[in-house]
Design brief:
Layout lengths: L1 H24 L11 H4 L2 H8 L3 H15 L11 H14 L2 H6 L7 H16 L2 H4 L6 H15 L6 E9 L18 E8 L5 E9 L4 H7 L1 H7 L7 E2 L10 E2 L8 H27 L11 H20 L26 H11 L1
Parallel strand pairs: 1-4, 4-5
Antiparallel strand pairs: 1-2, 2-3
Helix pairs in contact: 4-5, 5-7, 7-13, 9-12, 12-14
Length: 350
């Protein structure tokens, strides 16, 4: 009897060990938070919805952590990473309804609106940190070399142009926001380097404002005028011609002037490509933004900062780069007294 009981105990112990091994080998169940996009989407779907990869989202969250940290007296506390995801989804779609429909943290539409405003302000206030014209001579020399490799146009350190961001009809000063295409818009001036990064962005002028006025009254234009900034910009014929800003000939008459125009256009196309990538990544900028001009300018600044951060994080666009229509090539403006400098430049280099 004792032998029988002993045998049964041995068999029971062996069985317990077998069950323990089976449990150890069995795949552990993973419980996912259905309200957290980082849990329910893989890397590809995450990028399609938020236009940033997982590692970049974590980096941006750490960057904005202090500004997005919930206050203790808030009734609804939303984690900073979910606030960022709400904003990124809105920038990618320009629709509050889609953001809410995606059930990002199961937030209401008013909460999403406040969250997007908070994230946008946090990004926009960093514009001078992530978007600035280079003053280091080594950086300027490297930029000249890289631009020359594009189309053999010498001495270039930046390309300047303006693009219009459509907005809904504002309640105040409506006429000032009507642009050449009879749309209501914000006229945004931008300068990019050879890598496609913004090195200057001005987003505050109504759509009717001429490109030349934006440049003249911008900090960038004033610092080039007083000699603080060094280098050479190229732009279209909507800008005046300066020693630091070269524009194309409207009616070239010599072979060197024709070659000058060709190489300038080939180099200047980079800013059109940048605008195309920028507006496709942040679809918010591609259609009509149904907000006040002031809030729209904040959103534009936020998207400009994110554009540079995406390049810094090597989080580039997966698709080909569309090119914007060249809106200003046929628009002339008085070039003051610098045509002779342009003639000498074209003759010397082309």
């Amino acid at each position: 009897m004792r032998q029988f009981i002993h045998t049964q105990l041995v068999f029971a112990e062996v069985r317990r060990q077998e069950i323990a091994v089976e449990r150890a080998l069995r795949r552990e169940r993973i419980f996912r938070d259905q309200n957290n996009p980082l849990d329910i989407y893989d890397d590809i779907d995450l990028y399609k919805r938020f236009m940033f990869r997982r590692a970049s989202i974590f980096y941006l969250t750490d960057l904005l952590q202090i500004d997005l940290q919930p206050k203790s007296n808030q009734t609804l506390i939303v984690a900073p990473i979910l606030q960022l995801l709400c904003a990124l989804r809105f920038y990618a779609t320009r629709s509050f309804q889609i953001v809410v429909g995606d059930s990002t943290a199961a937030l209401s539409q008013p909460t999403v609106s406040r969250t997007i405003c908070r994230v946008s302000l946090s990004l926009a206030k960093r514009i001078n940190e992530y978007i600035k014209y280079p003053t280091n001579q080594h950086v300027l020399n490297e930029s000249r070399v890289k631009f020359y490799e594009i189309a053999e146009f010498p001495k270039v350190t930046g390309v300047i142009d303006c693009t219009h961001i459509c907005i809904q009809k504002p309640h105040e000063h409506e006429y000032a926001y009507v642009d050449r295409s009879s749309n209501h818009s914000i006229n945004v001036q931008a300068v990019c380097d050879n890598k496609g990064k913004f090195i200057d962005v001005v987003a505050k002028w109504p759509g009717s404002t001429h490109d030349a006025r934006i440049l003249r009254e911008s900090k960038l234009g004033k610092k080039f005028m007083d000699g603080t900034f060094k280098g050479l910009l190229i732009g279209d014929s909507g800008y005046p011609c300066f020693r630091w800003l070269l524009t194309p000939y409207l009616n070239p008459t010599t072979a060197s002037q024709h070659r000058y125009n060709i190489f300038l256009r080939k180099t200047r196309v980079i800013i059109k490509q940048v605008f195309g990538r920028w507006k496709r990544r942040f679809h918010l900028l591609h259609g009509e933004i149904r907000m006040t001009p002031e809030r729209t300018c904040t959103l534009v600044a936020a998207c400009a900062v994110l554009h540079n951060l995406a390049i810094q994080l090597n989080d580039g666009d997966m698709d080909e780069n569309p090119i914007e229509n060249d809106e200003n090539d046929n628009e002339d403006i008085a070039a003051e007294n610098n045509f002779q400098f342009r003639d000498d430049f074209a003759l010397r280099h082309f």
